[in-house]
TrEMBL record:
Family: Belongs to the LysR transcriptional regulatory family.
Gene behind the chain: metR
Natural source organism: Saccharospirillum salsuginis
Coiled coil regions in record: none
Protein name: HTH-type transcriptional regulator MetR
Subcellular location: Cytoplasm
Boundaries of every HTH lysR-type domain copy: 3-60
An annotated GO cellular component: cytoplasm
Alphabetical list of PANTHER family matching this protein: HTH-TYPE TRANSCRIPTIONAL REGULATOR (PTHR30126), HTH-TYPE TRANSCRIPTIONAL REGULATOR METR (PTHR30126:SF25)
GO BP field: methionine biosynthetic process
UniProt-listed InterPro entries: LysR_HTH_N (IPR000847), LysR_subst-bd (IPR005119), MetR_PBP2 (IPR037406), WH-like_DNA-bd_sf (IPR036388), WH_DNA-bd_sf (IPR036390)
Keywords: Activator, Amino-acid biosynthesis, Cytoplasm, DNA-binding, Methionine biosynthesis, Repressor, Transcription, Transcription regulation
PROSITE patterns hit by this protein: HTH_LYSR
Pfam families per record: HTH_1 (PF00126), LysR_substrate (PF03466)
Amino acid sequence: MFLERRHLQSLQAIQEAGNLARAAERLHITQSALSHQIKTLEHYFDVPLFLRHTKPIRLSPAGLKLVQLAGQVLPRMAGVEDELSRMASGEIGRLYIAIECHACFDWLMPVLERFKADWPAVEIDIRLGLSFDSMTALRAGELDLVISSDPFEASDLQFRPLFDYEGRLVMAKDHPLAERDFVDPEDLREELLITYPVSRDRLDVFKHFLTPAGVEPRAIRQSELTAVILLLVASGRGLSALPDWVLRYSQQPTSLTSRPLGENGMKGTLYAAIRSVDEASPYLNEFVALAGEFGPGGGEGAPGSNVGLRPSG
């Protein structure tokens, strides 16, 4: 493409200044350099850009068309350059998040509220990363951060720990297992287990507790909402395995209690996965810091109590 930004700036300056001398001064070039630039344009397009022998200089129809283009293009280019500069400084950007955790929304909402207040120019989008390969999407640039409890070694990704958690079996206080200090996999063989509607390989209770022991619950019921799961458990409709931080963040009936899964408990860590090339991003680092701060026991948005739940032994 022959037409360049400087050509549009020159034509715009000539129209505004009314003569070549003042336009050249405004552009910080010599008058002869400006005149040569205009002649080169006219030669290339084979059309005059100015009406000769007029004072002040008047544009030809072709020149007016290019100045009209300059009025449209130059402000947009300047705006994009400003945005790129602000992106480079970390002032603005994009934060597309996928959550590999069906229960994370209750915890994430206050994090996002605080983050948005601090970084209003950062565009935010959230996707549930249980229905697609979120790590592939992160690597492809379709996402910027993934909340996951399953880190792995990768030179192009970083898994930053947010907080530790414990999987707990939640039940009504009058359930027989409430008399136990902890539950074994066999204790769930005759129970109805209420889970989120995701595959078993995404549920810690199966992946780390039941499947290794070769135990299958009597039945499984699914619900998308944590509040509904807790109400079903409180009404004696079944049991559910949930992270302790989910219980802290959820509004729940006081008739619930919980027990460790196994004598040593089923422990895990929640991570924020980002691309290694983005490790210096100010707003990504701020989000990760806030996410950890709002985890169990920390942050002004963290819940204050664990109503109706028995602490881990």
